[in-house]
Design a protein that fits this description.
374 residues, mainly beta, Methylamine Dehydrogenase, Chain H, five-stranded antiparallel β-sheet, four-stranded antiparallel β-sheet, 31 strands, 47% strand, globular
């Protein structure tokens, strides 16, 4: 299947990304053209060959200070399109069939309380789903049904289940105080794990329960518990940014099984497609830490900061600030959003070295990969 480039129809793609859940019912109006223009192909951008695109796919980059999502050609780093989002796009998740991307509109002041839905398979304009009282949406995963997502809402202490197709909130699950920040799902999508960056804790939630409030309890992870991911063996890995550690927890009781050092404000974590490695972005240190998933030991530390690019001032000080991570489904490349340098680093996973830096919009944060369906 060919991937369309600027000047042609639109993309037909397949995605392997996240899963989701959460809250109360509201309507989903389309974004007004006057405030949210249609996606704009980049003038003068070279058209990559269809064959090259088919071998790599597309990288979606959420630029949280520019309120945009860029579509970047993974064959050569060319920006193909700029798409408006809501204010402060923080996370992006692509549906299992590759037809839709959902973006969390975290906002600034005032807080955001919506999701932006991007049509990846057609020409529909971006639309918005109102989350009502569930402001500051952040962590985001698709459920296996490909219709719904779960999203954390910091201001309402909730995990919100949203029917993306219908454009409405289904329900909100109270997860208690502590600033619910990120969410991960187990393999079958029936269990969610929420990290609380304020409390330094994590919580396990049974998504199959129809009870209005799910009995649960918090388990300590570490100060600033933020990034969270489920390993192939079902264990739950958490980055604790204030402690400079990664903790590994059992899937059922969340018992602590290992503590790994990852200095420099560890903020995100993902696993490679083969499940062999966990990748952690250390924001203040400007590094990508690589851990062996089976032995839970350090494999490599990659300097992510681009040479010759002066980091800008950020909320964490003057730093390169690597945050979002995405790994291509073929496992050959990892991509890291370098928020303080307005770049995305391209990492060769065979050698654990940076092979390129691509320009992005202002403050890239969220990343998602949309590979092409063969």
């Amino acid at each position: 299947m060919n991937l369309c480039v600027p000047g042609s129809a639109r993309w037909l793609l397949f995605a392997v990304v996240s899963l989701a859940v959460g809250a109360c019912a509201v309507s989903a109006p389309a974004l007004a053209p006057s405030t949210t223009p249609a996606a704009v192909p980049v003038a003068g951008a070279p058209a990559a060959s269809t064959d090259a695109l088919a071998s790599r796919g597309v990288l979606l980059v959420g630029n949280k200070a520019a309120d945009t999502v860029w579509r970047i050609d993974l064959a050569n780093g060319t920006r193909l399109e700029e798409i408006p989002s809501g204010v402060g796009p923080h996370e992006i998740a692509v549906s299992p069939d590759g037809a839709v991307a959902v973006v969390t509109d975290y906002g600034r002041e005032p807080p955001g309380a919506s999701l932006t839905v991007l049509d990846l398979a057609g020409d529909a304009a971006p639309r918005r789903i109102d989350l009502g009282r569930n402001a500051r949406p952040h962590g985001l995963r698709w459920l296996p049904d490909g219709r719904r997502v779960v999203v954390t809402a910091e201001d309402s202490d909730s995990l919100v289940m949203v029917d993306v197709a219908a454009g409405r909130v289904e329900r909100a699950i109270d997860v208690g105080p502590g600033k619910a920040h990120m969410v991960a799902l187990n393999a079958d999508g029936r269990t969610a794990y929420v990290s609380k960056v304020g409390a330094g804790t994590i919580r396990r939630i049974d998504l199959a329960s129809t009870a209005p409030a799910v009995p649960a309890r918090d388990v300590a992870a570490g100060a600033g518990a933020e990034g969270i991911a489920v390993a192939p063996d079902g264990s739950v890995w958490v980055t604790n940014r204030e402690d400079g550690t990664v903790t590994v927890h059992g899937p059922d009781t969340l018992d602590l099984r290992a503590t790994l050092p990852s200095p420099g404000f560890p903020i995100r974590i993902v696993f490679t497609p083969d499940g062999r490695h966990a990748l952690v972005s250390n924001a203040r240190a400007g590094t990508l830490a690589v851990f062996g998933a089976a032995r839970r030991t350090s494999v490599a530390t990659v300097d992510i900061a681009p040479e010759g690019v002066e980091p800008r001032d950020t909320m964490l000080g003057r730093a390169a600030l690597p945050i979002g991570i995405a790994v291509h489904p073929d496992g050959g490349r990892a991509y890291v959003a370098v928020s303080g340098s307005n770049r995305t680093a391209v990492v060769d996973t065979a050698t654990w070295t940076v092979v390129d830096h691509w320009a992005t919009g202002r403050e890239p944060d969220a990343l998602a990969i949309v590979p092409v369906l063969d």
